[in-house]
Amino acid sequence: MSSTTDHTAEDPALGEGAGSPGDGGAPEPAAIRVGEGAGTGGQELGYDVVIGNGLLSRLPDMIGPGPERVLVIHPRALRATGDVVREDLEKAGYTALVAEIPDAEEGKHIQVAAFCWQVLGQNDFTRSDAVVSVGGGAVSDTAGFVAATWLRGVKVIHMPTTLLGMVDAAIGGKTGINTAEGKNLVGSFHQPAGVLADLDTLITLPRNELVAGLAEVVKCGFIADERILEIIEASPEAAQNPHSPQLRELITRAIQVKVDVVSVDAHEAGVRERVNYGHTLGHAIELAERYQWRHGAAISVGMVFAAEVARSLGRLTDEEVDRHRSVLSSLGLPITYRDDRWNQLLEGIRRDKKNRGDTLRFVLLNGVGSAATVEIPDASLLFAAYQEIGEEPTQTVSL
Ligand code: GLY
Fold it and tell me: Which residues share a beta bridge with 364?
């Protein structure tokens, strides 16, 4: 870990046109407001998710005039982006520092948070100063946690550089770190002051990362916005092209689905559970695979599984279940899982946070676009659904 400002590493996050709004005739950025007409969540809601190209230079406007010091937290792989952001902030008159943290889940460790707290303390950060995250979901989770806990809460702005970060992790204020006992067991809700989803960062994102992020987009299609499914069905290739208007529309629509949910249920007391569609088995697969599967791959299988459970309860037709398989596989996402792991998976399913006592609860569809959390009357239904997605262990492939 480092809080220095070296200018050495190659930086894959900066695509063409980064830092220069409007380059190449890209459409004007769109802003989606979180908390518009919110029923719960109180004053912490009320911020913009801005989607567009070349947004890095908009950060000072989003931070606003209150803070004097800004800590930019980024992973090692985004050192050059972190430096560009720091330089922009310095030019705008802030005292800017960077904290470089380990990549991906390695960054979600208490020692990483302690390192960031140390940087904040040594630089006299006050309650009116701000933290900025630049990176994927693991970075926004850790940076959000650092911001939530420093002086009991300072402003945080997220600049997601992965598709998963843009459509899910950076929106809605979930923060957290991992412990030896499991992922995200320590954390809090701490809404950002704003989110800048710069589509240029997707240009150099590895294809498998992009496809894994699309699983969350497909999820939004099934739970709330069928147009998402239609766009992918019309051209799965365009859906995976970071330059295409189709991907831009998919991202905007998925963000709108997440914003709509978070705006009425910031603290996951009810409808927010819907964004966990496919996640109950998905998390169990991630655990069984010791986190070597990408999250998006695991929830892809999880959605097919949930669809099979819904079919057995008469909530989905055969065609609707087939649609899960065809949309997900058209993007190269997995739709099966090895057939010799049921006991291990059931153990993971039983640990899901949606369960109440011994009652297992799943997010299921009642037709496309209508999701709800449902009590599972009999665990044998789950085993039957597992039979439908199972295959020989030697055939199982992730992304
Ligand atoms: N990633 C799930 C949520 O934000 O609720």
Answer: 372
